[in-house]
Amino acid sequence: MSKRRRLRSEVAYSTADRIVVRGHDLVDLIGNVPLGDMAFLELKGRLPTSQESAVFNAITVTLVEHGMTPSTIAARMTYLGAPESLQGAVAAGILGLGGRFGGSVEDIARILQTRLAAATAEADLRQVARDVVEEHRSTKRLIPGIGHPEHKDVDPRVPRLFEVAAANGLSGRHVELVRLIGDEASTALGRKLPVNATGAIGAIASELEIPWQVCRGLAVMARAIGLVAHLQEEVTDPLAMEIWSRVEEEAAEQTREE
């Protein structure tokens, strides 16, 4: 029989009188560390520098809210059916963070991190960007982090994100590559395809050396805050019943027309 592995996490543990998170006593963190810095500590195993804090908080704030998105509607509709389970409604909204909404943070971070890991310091990043665009075109796949159905000319969040990253010394090759991918995609497809917020966040998270495998988690933890706010509004000013009624009404109208 093989030796059993000790069941211990390096993230945190608790005793009768202490809770220790990444080597810090939780009591010392309470009231001294903001939520974004606490998230950084959990992920990176250390508290951020002031520059890292500014950038990490900027990207997580960006991900909290984007209005009546599919995930928000899913959360509201689930809450309509199960008002006793707020956590279930939040979970329903989180489950919608996939390749098209939110989850593309992970997809673009994977591209940026793997391409730059394989490239030399002298590599032509514009050619790397062209290769990324051509590979996605040849397989008819959308390029994650590029283009937006609503913000067609410029995603208003992106210039500010890049500004914060640059002001804090965290605008390097990942940011440069995602910009070039946007440029090359626009040229190849003959229409403006700006870097969107998830593209910018995937690049900046990569500058923070956050592994691409958990970058989607940034959207998960941040959007959960926004979903709770939408559910609070659903309690006081509900929309889910109106959405349901409208769908039923229009479906019935379609049936009559046929």
Question: How would you characterize this protein structure?
Answer:
There is one protein chain. β1 and β2 form a beta hairpin. The chain has twelve helices and three strands, in the order βββαααααααααααα. It is globular and about 65 Å long. The mean pLDDT is 93. The longest helix is centred in the C-terminal third of the chain and has 22 residues, at 215-236. 33% of the residues are buried. The protein has 258 residues and is mainly alpha-helical. The protein has helices spanning 26-29, 35-44, 50-64, 70-81, 86-94, 104-118, 125-138, 157-167, 173-189, 197-207, 215-236, 240-257, and strands at residues 12-14, 19-21, 24-25. α3 (50-64) packs antiparallel against α8, α4 runs antiparallel to α5 (86-94) and α7 crosses α9 (173-189). A three-stranded antiparallel β-sheet has the order 1-2-3. The N and C termini lie far apart (68 Å).
Outline:
The chain contains 12 helices and 3 strands.
Which characteristics define this entry?
three-stranded antiparallel sheet
Sequence-ordered SSE layout with sheet pairings:
Blueprint: E1 12-14, E2 19-21, E3 24-25, H1 26-29, H2 35-44, H3 50-64, H4 70-81, H5 86-94, H6 104-118, H7 125-138, H8 157-167, H9 173-189, H10 197-207, H11 215-236, H12 240-257
Antiparallel strand pairs: 1-2, 2-3
Helix pairs in contact: 3-8, 3-10, 3-11, 4-5, 4-11, 4-12, 5-11, 6-9, 6-10, 6-11, 7-9, 8-10, 9-10
